[in-house]
Amino acid sequence: MLWTHTFIPTLKESPAEAxxxxxxxxxxxxxxxxxxxxxxxxxxxxxxxxxxxxxIVREEMxxxxxxxxxxxxxQPPEIWxxxxxxxxxxxxxxxxxxxARKEWLLGPTHEEVITTLVAGEISSYRQLPRNFYQIQTKFxxxxxxxxxxxxxxxxxxxxxxxxxxxxxxxxxxxxxMHDAYTRIFARCGxxxxxxxxxxxxxxxxxxxxxMVPAETGENDVVYCDxxxxxxxxxxxxxxxxxxxxxxxxxxxxxxxxxxxxxxxIDALAxxxxxxxxxxxxxxxxxxxxxxxxxxxxxxxxxLNEAKLVAALGTAQVRxxxxxxxxxxxxxxxxxxxxxxxxxxxxxxxxxxxxATAMTTGANEDGVHYCNISVARDVQVTQWIxxxxxxxxxxxxxxxxxxxxxxxxxxxHIFKLGTKYSEKLEALFLDETGKQQPAVMGCYGIGITRxxxxxxxQSHDKDGIIWPVSVAPYAVCLTPLSITPGGPVMxxxxxxxxxxxxxxxxxxxxxxxERPGVKFKDSELVGxxxxxxxxxxxxxxxxxxxxxxxxxxxxxxxxDIVARVRELVAAAA
RNA sequence: CGGGACGUAGCGUAGCUUGGUAGCGCGUCUGAAUGGGGUUCAGAAGGUCGUGAGUUCAAAUCUCACCGUCCCGACCA
Length: 572
Prior knowledge:
Layout: H1 21-28, E1 32-36, E2 39-42, H2 44-63, E3 67-68, E4 74-75, H3 77-83, H4 85-88, E5 94-97, E6 103-106, H5 111-121, E7 130-139, E8 154-164, H6 167-187, E9 193-197, E10 206-213, E11 219-224, E12 230-232, E13 255-258, H7 265-269, E14 281-288, E15 291-298, H8 305-312, E16 317-319, H9 322-329, E17 346-348, E18 358-364, E19 367-372, H10 374-377, E20 382-383, E21 402-417, H11 419-423, E22 427-429, E23 435-437, E24 439-446, H12 447-457, E25 459-460, E26 463-464, E27 475-479, H13 487-501, E28 506-508, H14 515-525, E29 529-533, H15 535-538, E30 542-547, E31 553-556, H16 560-571
Parallel strand pairs: 3-7, 15-17, 17-20, 27-28, 27-29
Antiparallel strand pairs: 1-2, 4-6, 5-6, 7-8, 8-24, 9-10, 10-21, 11-12, 11-21, 13-19, 14-15, 14-16, 18-19, 21-24, 22-23, 25-26, 29-30, 30-31
The structure holds one RNA strand of 77 nucleotides.
């Protein structure tokens, strides 16, 4: 490819809209342009990288035995009503109407479609297992698109769905995808590691996310160096808080004391009361499927809403408003507590199981209780782990201190079970002639997000550093003079032809630009190998080999094609 | 949805407080010089100052509404 024949609109300065390095570089290197918030056009360099990532994904999915299909992006709402997600996933659904006023929606994912397909086509255990996948544009009405391709309204995803006859066999399918994902991300040249994750609105038994460590990620991963435990913070547990809960026997009677204007944990911890946060009970009122519930945590702990949602198994969970709380408890937020509460279910974190000498709101504005023994004074409906793990807490498995790392989620695999196959009737007859729902798994990779994650993980001050496997072009030939018929250009064109013939993606920078401009651009766009051809070195029969991020070496003209082939082969 | 910031040429920005000819850098075009790290000089094109309404003799500037972009939040009472 000739630089002047393709389209690489590089920018010296990054547009003000871009905040993080990868987003700036996507724009500056001319890979994408924004149409509007959350919607981007891929330019030639961006498309080339996209296709390479897709190719890797296809090869590994095929290798793992999955079959490529292509499902409609436009979907009828009926199948979503069947699965129950028309309601539970409602906020992310783009809905539209046709001229007959019938409603449609743009698919944010395809469990409903594939399960409907399988329901119609698969009827015997002899037809299983199957794993179908596709690479397709998804649509999600994100609350807030951000960071370029990281969170967009429209994005490209690889989604796969496995169907098995038994739970054990489904586990094998799951493991195959786990292995395939590990290979995919390795081949894309990024470090991504699996962590235990919350299944969220997809549902299912358990799941793993593949995470790329990056400070700009939107997830916190809790991990242990001691035993390799790793989990999304939405799921992670630990041996408990850093400071022990007060559990010493304390027979002091429950007592009220006035706390006018004190409505926060911090305020109660300060003058004049000086009740340490860890000796307070944090009482949160939530609305779960329309019913008020009370959630208890230690004052210094943070509620993990994902854990709460998972434990309750309810679809709609949100904090209750003061207007909703007052009639039920008789006080406003800041003076709430669980002591003596019988009209609402009370969910308490196990950290508080034997807590004594605690303080909490008395359900009377401006009044708190002290000397609370949770076991004695609070009627707990259910103990559920709902606290957020903090760095430094002991690993529940091996006791080593846990660490927390920000990360980008690039893949997510789910052990679904029979949630969808039952509702959408993907049933088969087993060996004994008995009808059973297929056991499912589903497996996603954000292709466009992966592309950006690669940049986020692999760049420097000069630009992108593409791994050879996904680079738009592996080699950039940089003639320092473009005089037609001149020795520099003649050699450049010869090398271009030879490298292309060798099956290497090569671009020839034939622009009439000064060397500095060409060097800067090739580094910004991030081609892994640059071959500089100038009169000075050519006089010595040499050209310059400059790996992106490496050092420049002189190579004999007759050796350069072989050297480049070696480098490319070594990277593959 | 709540809070905040911003919207001036393709990109980055000044001007706005105190209303009066819209400026700069990069990029683009023309010419010349230069030719190994975003070179230099000369000239040029390019603007409904986000949109609409209002105040005013006069609005990029003040007021209101709307639209858009970005950031934070949307659990911690």
